[in-house]
Amino acid sequence: MQMKQIIQYMPCRLRQLCEPWCHSEVQEIRVHKGGSFAVVSEGNAVVPKKNYVVTEREFNQLLESLCGNSLYTYEDEIRKGYFTLREGHRVGVAGHVLMEQGHVKTIRNITSLNIRVSHEKKGCGNPVIEHLINGTTFLSTLIVSPPGCGKTTLLRDLVRILAGKTYRNSIALIDERSEIAGCYRGVPRNDVGENCFVMDGCEKSVGIEMMIRSMSPNIVAVDEIGMKKDAEALQKALCQGVKILATAHGSSYEDVCHLPDLWSLIGKDKISRIVFLNAYGGPGEIREIVDERGSRLV
Amino acid sequence: MLVGIVLVVGSSSALGLYFCYQYKQRLNELRELQKAMICIQSEMKYGRMELDDIFEQAKRCTKGCTKGFFQAVQNRRGHNFQQEWKEAVEREMACLARGEKDNLNWLGSMLGMQDLEAQLLQIEQYKKRTERQIQELENEQKKYVKLYPALGVCLGMIVCLMLVG
Question: What is residue A164's predicted lDDT score, i.e. its pLDDT?
């Protein structure tokens, strides 16, 4: 399904190469201008046709199509190295970076694309959810794994479950990269539960404060925290009695303990559960769940 | 014989009126395009909307061939935007002169793959060129709008005289 959504953007020859993966679970598609074309499925990068070279024309057509012939719309996102498709898939870009006063002004002459396929795996949060609830109260949780292991997929499903009919939590989802809810014109395309308020395309730190002020949620959900200002905003949320559900890069409890600013601002005891995902399993596969003291629960 | 004379003079006059109407139509379409450009510029600048959504707005604020043109570009099916823009210009904006079509094709070749600042500058450039074309056309129209119908009538009468003679 997801692959079909991406294939529609591709020029004819690339589309033909991708067709065998139409019904497979693809994680990434890597395209290099004047270079190779590879599909990453189940952790392995496969080249669909040996010695196949993506022509400049094909590459440009793909890029034009991905950004709806409107590159200017994605200017701000491209500055950060990616843009998000309306279906929630993220396109990483690499090329020549133009700097201005120490900041990235833009990326010109884009030469490589990495399309990261977003997966909505309904039910992948079911085995986890019972460990994140105490009675009827949700415990603040951090989902940790290296890139590409399904943090966002699990986060999305947990949000769906928590904001759904069973738990009925009021969740504020700050979807900075439009990856979680996959909003198009403000309407979520992925199922994020009926009691979820989505702030789409908004910087996490700004969004958290806005949502707490305006929507009074009992849970704030954010993806990929790591910066000081994110931690500060989460700390404010915790002080107001709001629980947090967030993801971060890392692979062990030690990694998480060394996340800059996170623990010093939030405090270890405020995050009651840390879910580690398996780097070698399928997307969203749980390796272990630990509590605030680092004791293993699962 | 009288019927024949009326038919010849009538059809040549209609031909003169048709040429006159073409001028008016070209002028109207160029003005509609100007109107559409203002809409495109503001949607790009303040709404940061994608081109297809902008064309939807442009379609709403225009009429005639220009409306049909934006409809055609919006409904394109292939992956080559520039090519389909060109085809839509030829198909939907047939009333425009070659230079006016070239100007519109130039804009099509620039749209989409540049940053906002460059896009806005290119639209501004297009608007200036179109403004010049409108002025030239208005001057020509003043000259020819009365000339063509009169010329049509005269031509019809000359043909009749030659036939009768």
Answer: 93
